[in-house]
Amino acid sequence: MRNSTPPLAVGTHRPVYLWAGPGTIRMNRLKFMNAPVNEAVHEEAHALQGAVRIVQEARCNWIYLTYDWGFPPEIEAQDWEAFRQAAQVYQSAGARVFGYIQTSNYVYAGSYLERDWYARDPRGRPFPYYTGRYMTCWRHPDWRAHLHEMVEGVIAAGADGVFFDNPWYGMAPQHSAGAWLGGAGCYCERCGAAFRAAAGIEIPRALAPETDEASRVYLRWRADQVTATLAELADHARQLNPAILISANDFDTVMRPSFVTYGIDLVGLARVQDVVMIEDYGLVHWRPEAAELINNALTLRTARALIGDTHLSVEPYDQGIGFDQVYAPRRYQQAIAEAAAGGASMVVKGTEFVEADGTFTLLTAEKYAPQREAIGAMHRWLIEMAPRYTERQNLAPVGLLYPGDALWQRWDRVAPLYFSAGQALLMQRVPWRVVTPEDDLSALSVLLHSAPLPHDLRVPDTVRVVSLAALPGWVRPTPSFVARHAVIRRLYASLTEALFRAYFKRRWARRLVDRLGLTQKHFIPRSMAFGIPSVTRQTALLSALGPLPGPRVTAAAPVLVEHWLQGNTRQLHLVNYAETPQQITVVFEQSVSGEVLRPEEAPASFQGQTFEDELDVTLVLCYRP
Description:
This protein is an alpha/beta fold. Helices cover about 35% and strands about 20% of the residues. A 9-stranded parallel beta sheet has the order 14-13-10-9-6-3-2-1-15. Strands 18, 23, 24, 25, 26, 27 and 28 form a 7-stranded antiparallel beta sheet that branches. A 4-stranded parallel beta sheet has the order 20-19-21-22. The relative contact order is 0.11.
């Protein structure tokens, strides 16, 4: 049973990723082939000055610190002591600390050269994770014993929580050109025997979940192993310290098919965690010139529908580790406001940034005081607003039905419709929410679906059901050329795997792939779902929705609209996705009165059927008819 204290909620949970200290210096150089690292900044982050800047200036109160990067013990003992000391520094400053454990890979050096716990691909080879590291076999007893030891070490060092990073089972298949390439998981004798005992068949050497039942059975089994292992580790932690909190990196589990790629089952893992943490590539960025709206609303709304009462947190990136410079203050504020509007906390990315010259740095560097001040301003506001984010009911009249297993099984045919619908509704400023077949659908006006409806789904007669695939211009994609031709698929898989391995082994390959922009397209791809549907498609969807209840928001640029009910008071949360302030107009169904709440401003009253004002980053209208 999950621990319920301290409170994990919007305003009371204000976390930050802060990998620093000697281990992070060493890891950045290993991971990025001797890249330059600002050692002074990384050491300062573990000291009092770093704590002042994070806790007092940025007003963060949960600090993710690294305990275990996966180095062998004769090297990593230095990092364990650094973690213990840093934890005391931050706890003395009034914060709580998560201790980071590397769950799925290790550094191939020192005493670990003699270990045989690595995962194997179908040809019996170890599978790389960045440079100098290999993925591990989760069924190897020595690796499981190692993870138990790391849990014990984190708790003994005084952590308030245990954070399991990269809970991935073995090799990750590539997804490119509309097809899955290669195998997944681990093909050692131990894993093969376990799957044969469970399913009576061999592990597929190449995945095809869109058509192959054996692939589907194996992928479900693999995900169940991940969940069971995390549950085992969480239980071990709670036996040692019943007050310990558990979290894990549910990496980009909405915007990419992480169930297939990594074995992450968000529904299952949410039951294990006290706070779900989703690291993704959804940092707010409105790019009209590219017809793209990068956002986290799609992730927030989907995850919120799947994880029950577990608190949700998100950590959005831009391009990714080793590519991002420290974000502009406004982008931090937009992302924090977006998460809060959706009932979640944003984990502030404070680490693994690079300067313009490629030197690794942190948010704690003195020059980033404006960023910390902007983050702190938003956090101070959320502390004041915290009671308004509790015990609420979502009033969105449009429900987008979660496709369930169809999403990962037929990703290339279902995901484009599912995410395009969310993007179109965002562009039209329509409040919407994700629903599941188990939810009460009676309060909806419209139910949208991107996959065939479950046979046993009961939809009230008052709810209009719209099939996205039947709308004009909303054609379901056909299987790609590579997916349709097995020989081409195998050849392309071999080429992609060779490039993947070279990228993590050869400096020239790393530089070439990064220069060509292939890293984000293939190895760590940003989701394809952030493109904006054409005006024709948006119009077709709006026409299918028909008249909707509730307030209507108009603006020149995209605005996130979240509509909630708390007691007798309605809340309209607005977040500006534009780079500058813009005028907005809200038209209510009838005359209302209430308060306007903004960061760093005193509450103001408003009354009438129309509200017009400037929207900078965010505001909340709390009103009654």
